[in-house]
Amino acid sequence: MSEAIEHPPATWEYAPAPESKDVVRLEDRYGLFIGGEFVEPKSGRYFATIDPSTEEPLAEVAEAGSEDVALAVEAARGASPAWQALAGSERAKYVFRIARQLQERAREFAVLESMNGGKPIKESRDVDLPLAAAHFFYYAGWADKLDYAFPGRSPRPIGVAGQIIPWNFPMLMAAWKLAPALATGNTVVLKPAETTPLTALLLAQVIQEAELPPGVVNIVTGAGATGAALVDADVDKIAFTGSTDVGKAIRRATAGTGKRLTLELGGKAANIVFEDAALDQAVEGVVNGIFFNQGHVCCAGSRLLVQEPVFDVLLGKLKDRLQTLRVGDPLDKNTDIGAINSRAQLDKITELVGSGVAEGAEIYQPECALPERGFWFRPTLFTGVSQSHRIAREEIFGPVLSILTFRTPEEAVEKANNTPYGLSAGIWSEKGSRILWMADRLRAGVVWANTFNRFDPTSPFGGYKESGFGREGGLHGLEPYLELDGGSR
Amino acid sequence: MSDDRLPVRRTAKLFIGGAFPRSESGRTYEVVAHDGRPLVHVARASRKDLREAVVDARGAQGPWAGMTAYLRGQILYRVAELMEGRRAQFEAELADAGAADPARGVSAAIDRWVWYAGWADKIAQVSGATNPVAGPYFNFTLPEPTGVVGIVAPGDQSLLGLVSRLAPAIVSGNTAVVIASEAAPMPAVTLAEVLSTSDVPPGVVNILMGVTAELVPWLAGHMDVNAIDVTGVPDDLLAEVTELSAENVKRVHRGPDVDPFSEAAQSPYEITGLTEFKTVWHPIGA
Amino acid sequence: MSQAAEIERSAPATPVASPAEASRLVARAPTVDAVGLEGRATSLATRSIKHDSKRRALELAIRCMDLTTLEGSDTAGKIVAICAKAVRPNPLDASIPAVAAVCLYPQLVPVAVEQLRGTGVAVASVAGGFPSGLGPLDARLREIAEVASAGADEIDIVLNRSLFLGGRYAEAFEELVAAREAAGSAHLKVILETGELGSYDRVRQASVLAMAAGADFIKTSTGKIGVNATLPTALCMMEAAREFHAQTGRRVGIKVAGGVRRSKQAIQYLVLVNETLGSSWMTPALFRIGASSLLNDVLMQLEKGTTGRYAGPDYFTID
Question: Of B175, C50, C163, C204, which residue is most buried, by most CB within 10 angstroms?
Answer without folding.
Answer: B175
